[in-house]
TrEMBL record:
Domain of life of the native organism: Bacteria
In-chain residues carrying the UniProt-annotated modification 4-aspartylphosphate: D541
Transmembrane segments: 135-157
Species of the source: Caldimonas mangrovi
The protein, known as: histidine kinase
Keyword Chloroplast: no
């Protein structure tokens, strides 16, 4: 196509040029002829010799292309003329303007005749202008040249195209293969060092780069996939935890409400003044059990939160495990008895030493025992067995109760996990007991496991603890609190707490024991009461309006009359930093709410005993 277009353009240009050259040559030729004739016609015109002019014109017979010629006088009259033999001249009556004109296939030319600068006539020439024949000849030649050139161009193109197209086709094939097989290791062989070679190099480099990037992309895709799976797992865990939380909240509400109905009923009974003492005593028993149940639920929750936030510190010492187990049995005893289970405990006679926190361990085993009692139909059989080995001791708590599906063995130790809520609705619990047990056992470097052949086949929980072989480890026996139910000596006591119910109820109990109690519900009132009658013991809430407990303690310590009082902080904050702050403020003891009588009475009792020892013999009360 390119060759063809180039040839056509050059042929057209050549043709135009050639036609113009042909015309110019003809005009120049006729002009020369006319000039010669004009020169020769001067004497004939001057002497009015038409015959001589005719003879000059007759010489034109040697130019066959000239078809007519004439000489005109100065005033435009025909003077002499010529026409080839056998042809008519067909001349114009008067000569046209000087110059040439082309009309069809004839060309005419008029040339003036001058003598001494004066026009004396004109010469007229007419010739055949054979431009069409010429044009046809030219076109034929050009067509032949074009065809020949195109043939040659096609031959050359056929030879050359392979050197150009082969590497490009190879690049295209490699690109297709890369797309199909995703093999970025493919390379196109380089055959030349020209532009095609540069193209092949660029393509190969591009493949290398694309390969590298694809690899990096695949790697990051893989990482992304792993991350996504982790996120999905985390999300699933979150959803599960969220569901457990919702279920837990429902259970919690249920479990906390449960004791409220019997408590409300009991209060109504107590309001009836003429209730007989036996009814009152039974009612009191109900209230005590229900309150204990609520306290246990809340304690468990607080304990889990303390462990999960890392705030629980074990008070470990060398203790005799059978003693701990007996304490646990005592705690679980009411529920064992209530459900009329047969209970068997097998323990070695001698001591079995472990390095542990006795209270926490008792809590673990009490939990396992009360679970065994709860999840066994009334009249079942519960066993506790201790198995002492070389390095460790294993305690098994066995029941013949509802059993646990083996698929749930791992899950039951998770927080708020309860196997079958519908079944257990009647059995108090929040799904925290086993979580607490496992965490406490693990804090003791031990482990806890469950074995159950399946639903309906009973369960066995095993706690394994390392034995303590170090006889040098000190055995610090915790001080046994004094029973404290009868006062050794009546004391002045101050109870300052903005929780009016708590202050009043504690005050009433202490008054019932014979002490003189002052109540205050803010810091300023507490100071006023203490100044009016300096107390032997002051129980101070920390978060009180007016002056807070720390401030009251500081002031009591600063005043001579109250300096010696036993100061007890009673607060909801039980962290080490809170205890430290209380100690700095001058407190002797720090009780975490809800402080019960078992904690309060020994403190009062210890002061009373000291007062008794210090007092003269005659002051001692009888008995
Ligand atoms: P709670 O007893 O308050 O529901 P736990 O954490 O103590 O919570 O126990 C978790 C779950 O494990 C219980 O809800 C119960 O389904 C199951 N479970 C615990 N002990 C036993 C047992 N001895 N027999 C059968 N199932 C038990």
């Amino acid at each position: 196509m390119t060759t063809c277009v180039a040839l056509l353009l050059s042929a057209t240009a050549l043709l135009i040029y050639e036609l113009r050259a042909y015309r110019d040559a003809w005009v120049a030729d006729l002009a020369t002829q006319a000039h010669l004739l004009a020169g020769a016609s001067v004497p004939a015109l001057f002497f009015d010799d038409a015959r001589a002019a005719g003879q000059d014109l007759a010489l034109l017979r040697h130019r066959p292309q000239i078809t007519a010629a004439a000489v005109y006088t100065a005033n435009g009259e025909l003077f002499a003329h010529y026409a080839p033999e056998g042809a008519t001249a067909n001349l114009p009556a008067h000569p046209a303007e000087d110059g040439y004109r082309i009309a069809g296939d004839e060309i005419e030319l008029v040339q003036e005749v001058r003598r001494d600068g004066e026009r004396i006539g004109s010469v007229y020439l007419r010739a055949r202008y054979e431009v069409m024949g010429r044009l046809v000849d030219y076109l034929a030649i050009l067509a032949a040249v074009m065809v020949a050139s195109l043939v040659v161009a096609t031959l050359v193109f056929n030879r050359l195209q392979h050197t150009v197209t082969r590497p490009i086709l190879a690049v295209a094939a490699a690109a297709r293969e890369v797309m199909e097989k995703r093999d970025y290791g493919l390379r196109v062989p380089k055959t030349t060092d020209d532009e095609i070679g540069a193209l092949v190099d660029a393509f190969n480099n591009m493949l290398l780069e694309v390969g590298r990037r694809t690899e990096a992309l695949e790697r990051s895709n893989h990482e992304l996939q792993i991350e996504m799976e982790q996120r999905q797992r985390a999300q699933a865990a979150l959803i599960l935890a969220d569901r457990r939380k919702d279920e837990f909240l429902a259970t919690l509400a249920h479990e906390l409400r449960n004791p409220l109905a019997p408590l409300t009923n009991s209060l109504e009974i107590l309001k009836i003044a003429d209730a007989d003492p036996a009814t009152r005593e039974r009612t009191r028993g109900i209230m005590e059990r229900q309150v204990r149940q609520m306290v246990r639920l809340i304690d468990d929750l607080l304990e889990v939160s303390r462990i999960t936030t890392g705030k629980l510190v074990l008070k470990r010492e060398r203790i005799d495990l059978p003693i701990v187990l007996r304490t646990a049995i005592e705690i679980a005893e009411p529920v064992l008895r209530e459900r009329r289970h047969e209970f068997v405990a097998r323990m070695p006679d001698g001591p079995v030493w472990v390095d542990a926190d006795a209270t926490r361990l008792a809590q673990v085993f009490a939990n396992l025992l009360s679970n065994a009692a709860k999840y066994t139909d009334a009249g079942g059989r519960i066993e506790l067995e201790m198995d002492v080995q070389a390095q460790c001791v294993a305690v098994h708590v066995r029941d013949n109760g509802i059993g646990i599906d083996p698929r749930m063995h791992g899950a039951i130790f998770e927080l708020f996990m309860q196997v079958d809520r519908s079944l257990e609705r009647g059995r108090a619990g929040l799904g925290v007991g086993l979580t607490l047990a496992r965490q406490l056992v693990e804090m003791h470097d031990g482990r806890i496991e469950v074995h159950s052949p399946g639903l309906g086949h009973g369960s066995q929980f095993t706690v394994e603890l390392p034995l303590c072989h170090d006889p040098a480890a000190s055995r610090r026996t915790p001080e046994r609190p004094a029973s404290g139910l009868t006062p050794s000596v009546p004391l002045d006591l101050l109870i300052a707490d903005d929780n009016v119910d708590f202050a009043t109820s504690l005050g009433e109990v202490l008054e019932a024991l014979g002490h003189r109690v002052m109540l205050a519900h803010d810091g300023v009132a507490a100071m006023a009461a203490a100044r009016a009658r300096p107390p032997a013991v002051a129980f101070l809430d920390i978060g009180m309006p007016g002056l807070n407990g720390y401030e009251v303690a500081r002031r009591l310590r600063a005043e001579p009359a109250t300096r010696a009082a036993l100061l007890v902080a009673v607060t909801g904050w039980g962290q080490n930093s809170d205890r430290e702050r209380a100690r700095e403020a001058g407190f002797d003891h720090h009780l975490v709410k809800p402080a019960d009588l078992a904690q309060v009475l020994p403190l009062v009792e210890s002061v009373a005993r000291r007062a008794l020892q210090d007092a003269p013999v005659t002051d001692r009360p009888p008995g």
